[in-house]
UniProtKB/TrEMBL annotation:
<dbReference type="GO" id="GO:0004672">
    <property type="term" value="F:protein kinase activity"/>
</dbReference>
<protein>
    <recommendedName>
        <fullName>Protein kinase domain-containing protein</fullName>
    </recommendedName>
</protein>
<dbReference type="Pfam" id="PF00069">
    <property type="entry name" value="Pkinase"/>
</dbReference>
<keyword id="KW-0067">ATP-binding</keyword>
<feature type="domain" description="Protein kinase">
    <location>
        <begin position="93"/>
        <end position="357"/>
    </location>
</feature>
<dbReference type="InterPro" id="IPR000719">
    <property type="entry name" value="Prot_kinase_dom"/>
</dbReference>
<dbReference type="GO" id="GO:0005524">
    <property type="term" value="F:ATP binding"/>
</dbReference>
<comment type="function">
    <text>CIPK serine-threonine protein kinases interact with CBL proteins. Binding of a CBL protein to the regulatory NAF domain of CIPK protein lead to the activation of the kinase in a calcium-dependent manner.</text>
</comment>
<feature type="binding site">
    <location>
        <position position="122"/>
    </location>
    <ligand>
        <name>ATP</name>
    </ligand>
</feature>
<dbReference type="InterPro" id="IPR017441">
    <property type="entry name" value="Protein_kinase_ATP_BS"/>
</dbReference>
<keyword id="KW-0547">Nucleotide-binding</keyword>
<dbReference type="InterPro" id="IPR011009">
    <property type="entry name" value="Kinase-like_dom_sf"/>
</dbReference>
Amino acid sequence: MSAIPTEQTRPPEADARDFVEGETQRPQLLIAVQERILQDPILAGHFAGLPTPGVPLLIGDPFNALSSPHQLRTSHRLVRAVDAFGNKYLNQYIVIKLLGCGRYGKVKLCLNAFDGKLFAVKVVDRKRLRDRRFLNEDGDSIMLQEYVHEIATLKKLHHPNIVALHEVIDDVQQRKVYLVLEYVEGGPVMEDNRWIAFPEELAQKYFRDICCGLDYLHYHKVLHRDLKPENLLQTADGRIKISDFGVSQVFETTDALSSTAGTPAFLAPEACTKSSFEGRPVDVWALGVCLYVFVFGTLPFSGKTIPDIYHAIQHKQLSFHPSIVISKELKDLLKLILVKDPKIRISLPSIMEHPWLTLFGLQLLIPLSKSVHGAATMDFSKNDLKSAHTTSTSGLNPLSKVGEQEKRFQAGEYAKGQISMEDGCCYQPKSDGLAAL
């Protein structure tokens, strides 16, 4: 049985909101970046060898292979380069800023020089994945298992309320693997330990998005197992996207689970025991805890220690803060979700049909299980899991000094501006020219 994590930080790819707002920039900036790549003999030589057949270097079709949200790219060659201005490149990605550090390694904000889009690049250290401090009872690496499942899961998920994986850069000659993820500029809908209650109308909007994303996962037989506000990211237009699939699980026939994963305060009562339990009701419980946090700014069940938290989850009665007034429909929904017995807990399809969520039928949400016949199966073959992680056959080569350099920009060096491309934005230096890129 895997060890129960006592604390999990929010996904660092969610961050990076400290850029200075600037004027709207023109698409010509990206063409200038691309032209500079062609003019720089070092960069041009590097990029000439990249496997990019059929992908235009200059901006033309916004739905090219690199920008298509439905086409995952896997690259087996990593080219690291530094231009004359000291800017670091990972293949065609310009490193803008270090966002933070996660369980696997660093996460960096990068600009795709080919199409001008921002991405959160998760840097995964192969050696760290096999750290002996993170082995289960069978001697297998817990972090490696989580990493492999995250990639295998993200490769097959395409939904507006789920963070997308765009590219995997996996060069067996390198010590690190790079996951190019959708950059969600708004960050977590709530910061850890800084929860502030939302107005009920806003909580309802967010909750609808989360339900749609989770319904898509469950329809494809994927259990998230770690829903919490820190894993719910917000786009610039206010859409919520579910992230962090490190402890997710795919079930084939039944969704029975025997191991506990996730964050203690968001675990369902049945997950606090050593007995087996069904996975979908556990996700539904965590969904209800998120909703409770949205409207009250605090947890429904808490304690000073993990055993205290588990005891409260299993035995404490649900209560509502008298200082915050909520509608009777919302109160009814919370009571239906946060039911101790998973057998009588409301299901996700029923949640999506609840009057509070549909505004008494004015804004219908149709569960996928009811819009089509049967549930789709997201099959993971052995090749899927094998291809999610490549083991180096030539040893773990130390990175060169150039590879270890981290280009960090001070606040104000970049001005944020939207350009007229689908989901695109870029960062333009305040000074003239492109010396700061």
